[in-house]
Write a structure and sequence with these properties.
Length: 84
Amino acid sequence: MLVLPPETERLAKRLAAAQGVAVDEAVKRAIETSARAAGVTAEPRRQRRRLSADQMLAVGSEIAAMPVLDPRSPREIMDDLNAV
C-alpha cells in the first residue's frame, strides 16, 4: 500500500468523483495514461468504457463551447478541399 501526501489523496478523490469511479480505479487509469504517454507500457488498454447519456451531453457541451476556428460553412470548406 502506498502512503500518499494529503494533497495527492484529495486530488485522487476529486478525480475519482469526476469520473464516477473508485479512487483506486481513477489512480490506475491516470497511471496507465501517463505510462502510455511515456512509452513504458506495451499493453494498450483494450477495455472500452461506455458513457452515460449525461456524460455524452457533457462532452457535447465541452465541444460546443470550443471556439470556431474556421467561420466558413462545411460546404465552403469541402469545396475548397475538392478544388485542391
